[in-house]
Amino acid sequence: MAVDYPEVQMYIDGGWTAGSGNRRQPIFNPATEQVLGEVPVAEITDLDRALAAAARGFAQWRDTAIETRTRILLQAARLLRERAATIGQIMTLEQGKPVTEARGEVARAAGIIQWDAEEARRAYGRIIPVDTQSQLIVLREPVGPVAAFTPWNFPAGSPTRKIAAALAAGCSIIIKASEEVPATACELVRCFADAGIPSGVLNLVYGVPEEISSHLIASPVIRFVAFTGSIPVGKHLAGLAARVMKPAVMELGGHAPVIVCDDVDPVVAARSCVSGKFINAGQVCTSPSRFIVDARIAEPFTAAFVEAASKLVVGNGLEPNVQMGPLANERRVQAVQQLVDEAVTQGARVRCGGQRPAGRGYFFQPTVLTDVGEQSGLMQIEPFGPVAPICAFTDLEDALRLANSLSYGLAAYAYTHSAARANLLMRRLEAGILSINHVGGSVVEAPSGGYKESGYGREGGSEGLEGYLVTKRVSHRF
Fold first, then answer.
1. Same domain membership, residue 220 and residue 112
2. What is the pLDDT of residues 4-29, one digit of tens each?
């Protein structure tokens, strides 16, 4: 059953609000280009209310028993699972991904909350033996109120990573979710509110990114900054945090290489790569996006890749059997088209796709190119779209050089059945996330994060709480 798009509001100090001003931004359905609703734009007075609330909320939440915090978070996870079907449809309306993907994302978000709630119980300190007259104690305490900023490509997953880690560690949080996909974040926050989160502990705002980030990060209330998004914006926010010596976690962009060795079945490997490449229309920071294939199997790999990509059903994510939805906005369509056109003018060959189909919506065909030059923009710039450049190599060392040649270092992939090659690739690929013989995504049990300009800090796993905790050494002499 179809759901209506809900009214979008901010959540400040335990209440829903349209904000103190009259500024609004339209919200578009990327599959139809129709306006779904409006998102309120926070004014400075709204941000100051959120900061004051977060300060009060932290003072209460940090001293709340871990048993109580865990119970509230687990209840939020249960509510999120119960509401997954409805929230998934809302996500598809505003972001475009197929509704099965959207529901799966909501379910994974619930898993993140559950993991962090349980992991917080294991954020132990320790006692260090010294002598009978003194003690050395190491305490792990919540760092304080958090300012978090999340993008549009995973409307439930990205905010949940920040919210769950902050709340589990005992921090309060102000999160600025994306204005392009705001209703999903509203429904996520509603689950925490309905689970009994105290007023001020969790606050949700929307508005002009620069206005919000500059005001929140500079505030003495905020003690930690968490961001997922592009490298240029990440550098800017990291600079704002550095000016006031605030720690941060930065999960930034990538341009993930895929090295395919000649000891694998090229058809099986190609089909596996297609299954990961076109998830969320390629709008994933860990998306496999540079395919570096041994020349001895490059053509059968490419043929199988093209065949699988050409068969993908593209359309409105609410329609049955759709496998890939639209891009998020007109900007993404133009950016992807520009990269493809530039590659073609430089000699690349389009094997399938290559353009925007006729009709409404921000769609782009699943696209495969070969003969793409190493210096082409498509090989240098994260496409963040359904485009797969394939190039051949004759020497594994050259493949590694090409894979590591960029300033990115978020994710990488490799296909080989050789234990020796797998060991070499594990040691030599410069990426914080490496998958071998599959294109797996993030998991709650293990950390995710990048090398080089792809950011610092980790989300997920036991490491995911690190940034939200501060370590205090206590020397106690009797």
1. yes
2. 999 999 999 999 999 999 999 999 99
Range of the structural domain that residue 358 is part of = 256-443
Predicted TM-score (pTM) of the model is: 0.96
Q: What CA–CA distances, in Å, run from 85 to 100, 107, 158, 187, 322? A: 9, 9, 18, 12, 17
438 and 323 co-located in one domain: yes
Catalytic annotation, pick one of 101, 187, 251, 382: 251
Is there a catalytic annotation at residue 463? no
Catalytic residue among 285, 382, 430, 466: 285
Mean pLDDT across 380-393: 96
Shared domain check, 260 and 179: no
DSSP E strand stretches across 86-241: 126-131, 134-142, 146-149, 173-176, 202-205, 224-228
Q: Decide if 251 is catalytic.
A: yes
Q: 124-163 pLDDT, tens per residue?
A: 889 998 888 889 999 999 999 999 999 999 999 999 999 9
How many Å apart are CA 424 and CA 162, to the nearest integer? Answer: 34
161 domain-assigned: yes
